[in-house]
Amino acid sequence: MDSIRVVGGNRLNGTIPISGAKNAALPLMIASLLTEEELILENVPHLADVESLIRILTNHGVDYHVAGKRRAHANQQGRNIAFRAAEIVDTTAPYELVSKMRASFWVIGPLLARMHKARVSLPGGCAIGTRPVDLFIASLEAMGAAIDIDHGYAVASAPGGLKGADFTFAKVSVGATHVAMMAATLARGKTVLRNAAREPEVVDLANCLTAMGARISGAGTGTITIEGVEALHGARHRVLPDRIETGTYAMAVAMTGGEVLLQDAEAALLQNALDVLIKAGVEVEERNDGLRIARNGAAIRPVNIVTEPFPGFPTDLQAQFMALMTQAEGDSIIRETIFENRFMHVQELARLGARIGLDGQTATVHGPSRLCGAQVMATDLRASVSLVMAGLAAEGETMITRVYHLDRGFEHLEQKLSACGADIQRLSH
Length: 429
Ligand code: EPZ
Hints:
Number of domains: 2
Number of strands: 24
Mean pLDDT: 95
Strand order of the largest sheet: 22-23-1-24
Number of helices: 14
CATH architecture of the largest domain: Alpha-beta prism
Bound molecules: ligand EPZ
Radius of gyration: 22 Å
CATH topology of the largest domain: UDP-n-acetylglucosamine1-carboxyvinyl-transferase, Chain
Largest sheet: 4 strands, mixed
Distance between the termini: 6 Å
Protein backbone atom coordinates (compact mmCIF):
# COMPACT_ATOMS: atom_id res chain seq x y z
CA MET A 1 0.00 0.00 0.00
CA ASP A 2 1.34 3.46 -0.89
CA SER A 3 2.25 6.14 1.64
CA ILE A 4 3.13 9.78 1.28
CA ARG A 5 6.22 11.31 2.82
CA VAL A 6 6.27 15.03 3.49
CA VAL A 7 9.18 17.01 4.88
CA GLY A 8 7.79 20.24 6.25
CA GLY A 9 9.10 23.78 6.29
CA ASN A 10 8.98 24.87 2.63
CA ARG A 11 6.78 27.74 1.54
CA LEU A 12 4.54 27.16 -1.48
CA ASN A 13 5.18 29.37 -4.52
CA GLY A 14 3.99 28.94 -8.10
CA THR A 15 0.88 27.79 -9.95
CA ILE A 16 -1.50 24.94 -9.19
CA PRO A 17 -4.00 23.98 -11.91
CA ILE A 18 -7.41 23.22 -10.40
CA SER A 19 -9.03 20.02 -11.65
CA GLY A 20 -12.62 19.28 -12.57
CA ALA A 21 -14.73 18.68 -9.47
CA LYS A 22 -15.06 15.09 -8.31
CA ASN A 23 -18.45 15.80 -6.76
CA ALA A 24 -19.73 17.27 -10.02
CA ALA A 25 -18.20 14.62 -12.29
CA LEU A 26 -19.83 11.71 -10.44
CA PRO A 27 -23.50 12.79 -10.83
CA LEU A 28 -22.79 13.97 -14.40
CA MET A 29 -21.46 10.53 -15.30
CA ILE A 30 -24.56 8.96 -13.73
CA ALA A 31 -26.76 11.25 -15.85
CA SER A 32 -25.47 9.39 -18.93
CA LEU A 33 -27.88 6.56 -17.93
CA LEU A 34 -30.82 8.83 -18.78
CA THR A 35 -30.30 8.78 -22.57
CA GLU A 36 -29.44 6.31 -25.30
CA GLU A 37 -27.32 9.00 -26.96
CA GLU A 38 -23.76 10.02 -26.16
CA LEU A 39 -22.89 12.32 -23.26
CA ILE A 40 -19.40 13.81 -23.59
CA LEU A 41 -17.92 15.15 -20.38
CA GLU A 42 -14.86 17.38 -20.54
CA ASN A 43 -12.38 17.97 -17.73
CA VAL A 44 -13.14 14.73 -15.85
CA PRO A 45 -10.46 14.33 -13.16
CA HIS A 46 -8.23 11.23 -12.91
CA LEU A 47 -9.49 9.84 -9.60
CA ALA A 48 -10.15 6.46 -8.04
CA ASP A 49 -13.83 7.40 -7.47
CA VAL A 50 -14.26 8.13 -11.18
CA GLU A 51 -12.79 4.72 -12.02
CA SER A 52 -15.09 3.01 -9.50
CA LEU A 53 -18.12 4.68 -11.04
CA ILE A 54 -17.00 3.71 -14.55
CA ARG A 55 -17.03 0.07 -13.36
CA ILE A 56 -20.60 0.47 -12.11
CA LEU A 57 -21.81 2.18 -15.28
CA THR A 58 -20.23 -0.39 -17.57
CA ASN A 59 -21.98 -3.10 -15.56
CA HIS A 60 -25.30 -1.46 -16.52
CA GLY A 61 -24.22 -1.54 -20.18
CA VAL A 62 -22.69 1.92 -20.61
CA ASP A 63 -19.86 2.18 -23.16
CA TYR A 64 -17.21 4.80 -22.59
CA HIS A 65 -14.40 6.23 -24.60
CA VAL A 66 -11.53 8.31 -23.25
CA ALA A 67 -10.08 10.87 -25.65
CA GLY A 68 -6.30 10.70 -26.00
CA LYS A 69 -3.93 13.31 -24.67
CA ARG A 70 -4.06 16.62 -26.54
CA ARG A 71 -1.31 19.18 -27.04
CA ALA A 72 -3.47 21.80 -25.30
CA HIS A 73 -3.59 19.59 -22.21
CA ALA A 74 0.13 19.02 -21.89
CA ASN A 75 -0.03 19.19 -18.09
CA GLN A 76 -2.22 16.03 -18.12
CA GLN A 77 -5.13 17.71 -16.39
CA GLY A 78 -8.51 16.05 -16.69
CA ARG A 79 -9.83 13.98 -19.56
CA ASN A 80 -12.68 14.09 -22.01
CA ILE A 81 -14.80 10.99 -21.67
CA ALA A 82 -17.77 10.01 -23.83
CA PHE A 83 -20.43 7.84 -22.17
CA ARG A 84 -23.15 6.04 -24.09
CA ALA A 85 -25.96 4.04 -22.51
CA ALA A 86 -27.47 2.87 -25.82
CA GLU A 87 -29.04 -0.07 -24.03
CA ILE A 88 -29.25 -0.68 -20.30
CA VAL A 89 -28.72 -4.40 -19.94
CA ASP A 90 -28.73 -4.71 -16.16
CA THR A 91 -30.70 -2.63 -13.63
CA THR A 92 -28.90 -4.10 -10.62
CA ALA A 93 -26.04 -2.25 -8.95
CA PRO A 94 -24.38 -4.98 -6.87
CA TYR A 95 -22.96 -4.67 -3.37
CA GLU A 96 -19.36 -5.40 -4.47
CA LEU A 97 -19.40 -2.24 -6.61
CA VAL A 98 -21.67 0.10 -4.59
CA SER A 99 -19.90 -0.56 -1.28
CA LYS A 100 -16.71 1.07 -2.67
CA MET A 101 -18.33 4.45 -3.09
CA ARG A 102 -21.52 5.87 -1.66
CA ALA A 103 -22.40 8.05 -4.65
CA SER A 104 -22.90 4.94 -6.79
CA PHE A 105 -26.27 4.50 -5.00
CA TRP A 106 -27.39 7.52 -7.04
CA VAL A 107 -27.87 5.34 -10.16
CA ILE A 108 -31.25 4.46 -8.63
CA GLY A 109 -32.76 7.73 -9.96
CA PRO A 110 -31.90 7.41 -13.67
CA LEU A 111 -32.54 3.64 -13.71
CA LEU A 112 -36.03 4.12 -12.29
CA ALA A 113 -36.75 7.03 -14.62
CA ARG A 114 -35.65 5.27 -17.80
CA MET A 115 -36.14 1.56 -17.09
CA HIS A 116 -38.95 1.90 -14.49
CA LYS A 117 -37.05 -0.41 -12.17
CA ALA A 118 -33.80 -0.63 -10.26
CA ARG A 119 -32.18 -2.89 -7.70
CA VAL A 120 -29.38 -1.05 -5.97
CA SER A 121 -27.31 -2.17 -3.00
CA LEU A 122 -27.65 0.09 0.04
CA PRO A 123 -24.35 1.87 0.51
CA GLY A 124 -23.99 1.22 4.25
CA GLY A 125 -22.26 3.48 6.76
CA CYS A 126 -18.93 5.17 6.30
CA ALA A 127 -16.22 6.72 8.40
CA ILE A 128 -17.83 10.16 8.61
CA GLY A 129 -21.29 9.09 9.78
CA THR A 130 -24.27 6.80 9.30
CA ARG A 131 -25.49 8.54 6.11
CA PRO A 132 -28.97 7.06 5.62
CA VAL A 133 -30.94 7.00 2.33
CA ASP A 134 -34.42 7.89 3.66
CA LEU A 135 -34.57 11.16 1.68
CA PHE A 136 -33.83 9.38 -1.62
CA ILE A 137 -36.54 6.83 -0.93
CA ALA A 138 -39.15 9.39 0.19
CA SER A 139 -38.64 11.59 -2.88
CA LEU A 140 -38.79 8.67 -5.34
CA GLU A 141 -41.87 7.27 -3.58
CA ALA A 142 -43.50 10.69 -3.94
CA MET A 143 -42.94 10.30 -7.69
CA GLY A 144 -44.86 7.03 -7.62
CA ALA A 145 -42.09 4.45 -7.13
CA ALA A 146 -42.64 1.44 -4.88
CA ILE A 147 -39.45 0.71 -2.94
CA ASP A 148 -38.71 -2.27 -0.68
CA ILE A 149 -35.56 -3.01 1.20
CA ASP A 150 -34.67 -6.63 0.52
CA HIS A 151 -31.47 -8.39 1.62
CA GLY A 152 -29.49 -5.15 1.69
CA TYR A 153 -30.85 -3.88 -1.61
CA ALA A 154 -33.29 -1.08 -2.42
CA VAL A 155 -35.64 -2.72 -4.89
CA ALA A 156 -37.61 -0.05 -6.74
CA SER A 157 -40.23 -0.16 -9.42
CA ALA A 158 -42.60 2.25 -11.14
CA PRO A 159 -44.42 0.10 -13.72
CA GLY A 160 -46.16 2.94 -15.54
CA GLY A 161 -43.17 5.27 -15.19
CA LEU A 162 -42.54 8.01 -12.62
CA LYS A 163 -44.96 10.91 -12.25
CA GLY A 164 -44.31 14.50 -11.23
CA ALA A 165 -44.68 15.42 -7.55
CA ASP A 166 -44.43 18.34 -5.15
CA PHE A 167 -41.86 17.16 -2.62
CA THR A 168 -40.18 18.84 0.33
CA PHE A 169 -36.89 17.37 1.58
CA ALA A 170 -36.96 17.07 5.40
CA LYS A 171 -33.25 17.93 5.39
CA VAL A 172 -30.94 19.41 2.77
CA SER A 173 -29.14 16.61 0.90
CA VAL A 174 -26.87 17.03 -2.10
CA GLY A 175 -27.20 13.42 -3.25
CA ALA A 176 -30.98 13.19 -2.79
CA THR A 177 -31.38 16.45 -4.74
CA HIS A 178 -29.23 15.10 -7.61
CA VAL A 179 -31.24 11.87 -7.72
CA ALA A 180 -34.72 13.40 -7.50
CA MET A 181 -33.80 15.99 -10.15
CA MET A 182 -32.48 13.32 -12.54
CA ALA A 183 -35.53 11.10 -11.94
CA ALA A 184 -37.96 13.98 -12.52
CA THR A 185 -36.52 14.83 -15.95
CA LEU A 186 -38.30 11.78 -17.44
CA ALA A 187 -41.36 11.76 -15.12
CA ARG A 188 -44.82 12.58 -16.45
CA GLY A 189 -45.72 16.17 -15.62
CA LYS A 190 -44.21 18.72 -13.26
CA THR A 191 -42.04 18.10 -10.20
CA VAL A 192 -41.27 20.73 -7.59
CA LEU A 193 -38.41 19.95 -5.21
CA ARG A 194 -38.42 22.12 -2.07
CA ASN A 195 -35.62 22.55 0.46
CA ALA A 196 -33.32 21.34 -2.33
CA ALA A 197 -29.52 21.54 -2.01
CA ARG A 198 -28.07 24.71 -3.58
CA GLU A 199 -24.51 23.42 -4.08
CA PRO A 200 -22.72 24.43 -7.32
CA GLU A 201 -22.56 20.75 -8.28
CA VAL A 202 -26.39 20.66 -8.33
CA VAL A 203 -26.36 23.66 -10.69
CA ASP A 204 -23.73 21.96 -12.86
CA LEU A 205 -25.87 18.83 -13.12
CA ALA A 206 -28.96 20.92 -13.94
CA ASN A 207 -27.01 22.72 -16.68
CA CYS A 208 -25.91 19.43 -18.19
CA LEU A 209 -29.41 17.93 -17.99
CA THR A 210 -30.77 21.08 -19.66
CA ALA A 211 -28.22 20.65 -22.47
CA MET A 212 -29.59 17.09 -22.78
CA GLY A 213 -33.10 18.45 -23.31
CA ALA A 214 -34.45 18.53 -19.74
CA ARG A 215 -36.66 21.43 -18.61
CA ILE A 216 -35.35 22.63 -15.25
CA SER A 217 -35.60 25.97 -13.48
CA GLY A 218 -34.50 27.16 -10.05
CA ALA A 219 -31.31 25.05 -9.62
CA GLY A 220 -29.09 26.92 -7.18
CA THR A 221 -32.12 28.03 -5.14
CA GLY A 222 -34.04 26.02 -2.55
CA THR A 223 -36.88 25.26 -5.00
CA ILE A 224 -36.20 23.40 -8.25
CA THR A 225 -38.95 22.87 -10.81
CA ILE A 226 -38.68 20.19 -13.46
CA GLU A 227 -41.13 19.65 -16.32
CA GLY A 228 -40.79 16.03 -17.41
CA VAL A 229 -39.98 15.27 -21.06
CA GLU A 230 -40.38 12.11 -23.19
CA ALA A 231 -36.66 11.52 -23.70
CA LEU A 232 -33.28 13.18 -23.25
CA HIS A 233 -30.62 13.38 -25.94
CA GLY A 234 -26.83 13.55 -26.08
CA ALA A 235 -24.80 16.61 -25.08
CA ARG A 236 -21.33 17.89 -24.39
CA HIS A 237 -20.60 19.43 -20.99
CA ARG A 238 -17.52 20.66 -19.13
CA VAL A 239 -17.18 19.68 -15.44
CA LEU A 240 -16.89 22.75 -13.23
CA PRO A 241 -13.67 23.42 -11.27
CA ASP A 242 -13.27 21.68 -7.92
CA ARG A 243 -14.11 24.13 -5.13
CA ILE A 244 -12.89 21.77 -2.41
CA GLU A 245 -9.54 21.28 -4.12
CA THR A 246 -9.36 25.07 -4.52
CA GLY A 247 -10.08 25.67 -0.84
CA THR A 248 -7.63 22.96 0.21
CA TYR A 249 -4.69 24.47 -1.68
CA ALA A 250 -5.67 27.98 -0.58
CA MET A 251 -5.49 26.78 3.04
CA ALA A 252 -2.20 24.96 2.38
CA VAL A 253 -0.64 28.21 1.11
CA ALA A 254 -2.10 30.05 4.09
CA MET A 255 -0.46 27.50 6.34
CA THR A 256 3.03 27.41 4.85
CA GLY A 257 3.19 31.01 3.63
CA GLY A 258 4.07 31.90 0.04
CA GLU A 259 2.11 32.88 -3.03
CA VAL A 260 0.26 30.57 -5.43
CA LEU A 261 -2.02 31.05 -8.42
CA LEU A 262 -4.87 28.53 -8.33
CA GLN A 263 -5.42 28.35 -12.06
CA ASP A 264 -9.04 28.09 -13.29
CA ALA A 265 -10.41 28.38 -9.73
CA GLU A 266 -13.67 30.30 -9.41
CA ALA A 267 -14.18 32.41 -6.29
CA ALA A 268 -17.98 32.32 -6.47
CA LEU A 269 -17.91 28.56 -5.86
CA LEU A 270 -16.42 29.01 -2.39
CA GLN A 271 -16.98 32.62 -1.38
CA ASN A 272 -17.78 31.76 2.24
CA ALA A 273 -14.51 29.87 2.74
CA LEU A 274 -12.53 32.65 1.00
CA ASP A 275 -14.13 35.25 3.29
CA VAL A 276 -13.04 33.15 6.27
CA LEU A 277 -9.48 33.03 4.90
CA ILE A 278 -9.45 36.80 4.43
CA LYS A 279 -10.59 37.19 8.07
CA ALA A 280 -7.71 34.89 9.03
CA GLY A 281 -5.29 37.30 7.37
CA VAL A 282 -4.76 35.61 4.00
CA GLU A 283 -4.54 37.62 0.76
CA VAL A 284 -7.09 36.49 -1.81
CA GLU A 285 -7.21 38.09 -5.24
CA GLU A 286 -9.64 37.15 -8.00
CA ARG A 287 -8.02 37.18 -11.43
CA ASN A 288 -9.16 36.25 -14.94
CA ASP A 289 -7.06 33.10 -14.88
CA GLY A 290 -7.93 32.00 -11.34
CA LEU A 291 -7.32 32.98 -7.74
CA ARG A 292 -4.08 34.31 -6.29
CA ILE A 293 -3.56 33.28 -2.67
CA ALA A 294 -0.73 34.70 -0.58
CA ARG A 295 0.49 35.01 2.95
CA ASN A 296 3.81 36.70 3.35
CA GLY A 297 4.76 37.10 6.99
CA ALA A 298 1.31 38.11 8.31
CA ALA A 299 0.17 36.18 11.38
CA ILE A 300 -2.79 33.81 11.04
CA ARG A 301 -5.77 35.07 13.03
CA PRO A 302 -8.20 32.61 14.65
CA VAL A 303 -11.67 32.45 13.07
CA ASN A 304 -14.68 30.44 14.28
CA ILE A 305 -16.67 28.48 11.70
CA VAL A 306 -19.82 26.36 11.50
CA THR A 307 -20.19 23.91 8.59
CA GLU A 308 -23.46 24.34 6.69
CA PRO A 309 -25.02 23.46 3.35
CA PHE A 310 -24.03 25.80 0.49
CA PRO A 311 -23.60 28.76 0.53
CA GLY A 312 -22.28 28.19 4.08
CA PHE A 313 -18.81 26.91 5.00
CA PRO A 314 -18.45 23.42 3.41
CA THR A 315 -18.02 20.36 5.61
CA ASP A 316 -15.53 19.10 2.98
CA LEU A 317 -13.11 21.89 4.03
CA GLN A 318 -13.55 21.49 7.79
CA ALA A 319 -10.56 19.19 8.38
CA GLN A 320 -8.26 21.37 6.27
CA PHE A 321 -9.38 24.51 8.10
CA MET A 322 -8.70 22.81 11.41
CA ALA A 323 -5.15 22.07 10.28
CA LEU A 324 -4.74 25.75 9.39
CA MET A 325 -6.13 26.92 12.73
CA THR A 326 -3.42 24.96 14.60
CA GLN A 327 -1.14 27.78 13.39
CA ALA A 328 -3.47 30.67 14.37
CA GLU A 329 -2.56 33.14 17.10
CA GLY A 330 -5.26 32.03 19.55
CA ASP A 331 -8.27 29.75 19.95
CA SER A 332 -10.78 28.99 17.21
CA ILE A 333 -14.04 27.08 17.46
CA ILE A 334 -15.15 24.71 14.71
CA ARG A 335 -18.66 23.27 14.74
CA GLU A 336 -19.61 20.43 12.39
CA THR A 337 -23.35 20.28 11.64
CA ILE A 338 -23.50 18.10 8.49
CA PHE A 339 -21.95 14.77 9.57
CA GLU A 340 -21.99 13.41 13.11
CA ASN A 341 -18.56 11.78 13.03
CA ARG A 342 -16.31 14.00 10.98
CA PHE A 343 -13.59 14.69 13.54
CA MET A 344 -11.46 11.59 13.00
CA HIS A 345 -8.54 13.81 12.00
CA VAL A 346 -8.40 15.41 15.48
CA GLN A 347 -6.43 12.55 17.05
CA GLU A 348 -4.06 12.36 14.09
CA LEU A 349 -3.42 16.13 14.11
CA ALA A 350 -2.71 15.75 17.84
CA ARG A 351 0.04 13.23 16.98
CA LEU A 352 1.72 16.05 15.07
CA GLY A 353 1.48 18.35 18.10
CA ALA A 354 -1.88 20.10 17.61
CA ARG A 355 -3.89 20.95 20.72
CA ILE A 356 -7.59 20.42 20.01
CA GLY A 357 -10.43 19.95 22.51
CA LEU A 358 -13.50 18.03 21.39
CA ASP A 359 -16.98 18.36 22.84
CA GLY A 360 -19.62 16.57 20.77
CA GLN A 361 -19.86 18.34 17.42
CA THR A 362 -17.61 21.21 18.49
CA ALA A 363 -13.81 21.35 18.37
CA THR A 364 -11.71 24.07 19.98
CA VAL A 365 -8.33 24.48 18.36
CA HIS A 366 -5.71 26.06 20.61
CA GLY A 367 -3.23 27.83 18.39
CA PRO A 368 -0.46 28.30 17.67
CA SER A 369 1.14 24.87 18.05
CA ARG A 370 4.59 23.82 16.96
CA LEU A 371 3.93 20.84 14.70
CA CYS A 372 6.50 18.03 14.49
CA GLY A 373 6.48 15.29 11.85
CA ALA A 374 5.16 11.85 12.79
CA GLN A 375 3.53 8.81 11.26
CA VAL A 376 -0.20 9.38 10.78
CA MET A 377 -3.11 7.64 9.15
CA ALA A 378 -6.46 8.88 7.95
CA THR A 379 -9.95 7.53 7.68
CA ASP A 380 -11.44 9.67 4.93
CA LEU A 381 -10.50 11.78 1.97
CA ARG A 382 -10.59 15.29 3.42
CA ALA A 383 -9.07 14.18 6.73
CA SER A 384 -6.11 12.71 4.82
CA VAL A 385 -5.37 15.93 3.02
CA SER A 386 -5.52 17.88 6.29
CA LEU A 387 -2.67 15.65 7.48
CA VAL A 388 -0.67 16.39 4.32
CA MET A 389 -1.18 20.11 5.00
CA ALA A 390 -0.10 19.75 8.62
CA GLY A 391 2.93 17.83 7.39
CA LEU A 392 3.86 20.70 5.06
CA ALA A 393 3.97 23.04 8.06
CA ALA A 394 5.57 20.58 10.52
CA GLU A 395 9.23 20.26 11.40
CA GLY A 396 10.79 17.12 9.94
CA GLU A 397 9.22 14.14 8.27
CA THR A 398 5.55 13.12 8.26
CA MET A 399 4.48 9.77 6.82
CA ILE A 400 0.85 9.47 5.80
CA THR A 401 -0.49 5.97 5.31
CA ARG A 402 -3.74 4.80 3.68
CA VAL A 403 -3.10 7.04 0.69
CA TYR A 404 -5.96 5.40 -1.20
CA HIS A 405 -8.26 7.88 0.54
CA LEU A 406 -6.37 10.77 -1.10
CA ASP A 407 -6.45 9.10 -4.49
CA ARG A 408 -10.25 9.10 -4.34
CA GLY A 409 -10.41 12.88 -4.56
CA PHE A 410 -7.16 14.73 -5.30
CA GLU A 411 -5.76 14.55 -8.83
CA HIS A 412 -1.93 14.62 -8.99
CA LEU A 413 -1.64 15.87 -5.41
CA GLU A 414 2.11 15.26 -4.96
CA GLN A 415 2.96 16.66 -8.40
CA LYS A 416 0.92 19.81 -7.84
CA LEU A 417 2.46 20.49 -4.43
CA SER A 418 6.03 19.60 -5.35
CA ALA A 419 5.83 21.90 -8.41
CA CYS A 420 5.30 24.71 -5.88
CA GLY A 421 8.31 23.76 -3.76
CA ALA A 422 6.89 21.23 -1.31
CA ASP A 423 9.09 18.31 -0.32
CA ILE A 424 6.57 15.53 -0.88
CA GLN A 425 6.76 12.11 -2.48
CA ARG A 426 4.79 8.92 -2.79
CA LEU A 427 6.41 5.72 -1.58
CA SER A 428 5.13 2.47 -3.03
CA HIS A 429 5.60 -0.63 -0.92
C1 EPZ B 1 -22.16 15.05 -0.83
O1 EPZ B 1 -22.44 13.85 -0.12
C2 EPZ B 1 -20.68 15.00 -1.14
N1 EPZ B 1 -20.39 13.82 -1.95
C3 EPZ B 1 -19.89 14.96 0.17
O2 EPZ B 1 -18.51 15.00 -0.16
C4 EPZ B 1 -20.24 16.19 1.00
O3 EPZ B 1 -19.58 16.12 2.24
C5 EPZ B 1 -21.75 16.24 1.23
O4 EPZ B 1 -22.45 16.20 -0.04
C6 EPZ B 1 -22.20 17.49 1.97
O5 EPZ B 1 -21.80 18.63 1.26
C7 EPZ B 1 -20.55 13.88 -3.27
O6 EPZ B 1 -21.01 14.86 -3.83
C8 EPZ B 1 -20.15 12.68 -4.06
P1 EPZ B 1 -25.72 14.81 1.81
P2 EPZ B 1 -23.93 13.41 0.13
O7 EPZ B 1 -26.76 13.87 1.36
O8 EPZ B 1 -24.77 13.83 -1.01
C9 EPZ B 1 -28.02 13.29 5.68
C10 EPZ B 1 -16.26 14.28 -0.09
O9 EPZ B 1 -15.37 14.27 0.80
N2 EPZ B 1 -28.88 12.45 4.84
O10 EPZ B 1 -25.85 16.25 1.41
O11 EPZ B 1 -23.89 11.98 0.48
C11 EPZ B 1 -26.56 12.80 5.70
O12 EPZ B 1 -26.40 11.72 6.59
C12 EPZ B 1 -17.69 13.87 0.22
O13 EPZ B 1 -16.05 14.59 -1.27
C13 EPZ B 1 -29.97 11.85 5.42
O14 EPZ B 1 -30.22 11.98 6.63
O15 EPZ B 1 -24.30 14.28 1.41
C14 EPZ B 1 -25.84 14.05 6.14
O16 EPZ B 1 -25.92 14.19 7.54
C15 EPZ B 1 -17.85 13.33 1.62
N3 EPZ B 1 -30.78 11.06 4.63
C16 EPZ B 1 -26.67 15.17 5.49
O17 EPZ B 1 -27.92 14.57 5.13
C17 EPZ B 1 -30.55 10.90 3.30
O18 EPZ B 1 -31.33 10.17 2.65
C18 EPZ B 1 -26.05 15.77 4.23
O19 EPZ B 1 -25.63 14.73 3.39
C19 EPZ B 1 -29.45 11.55 2.71
C20 EPZ B 1 -28.63 12.33 3.50
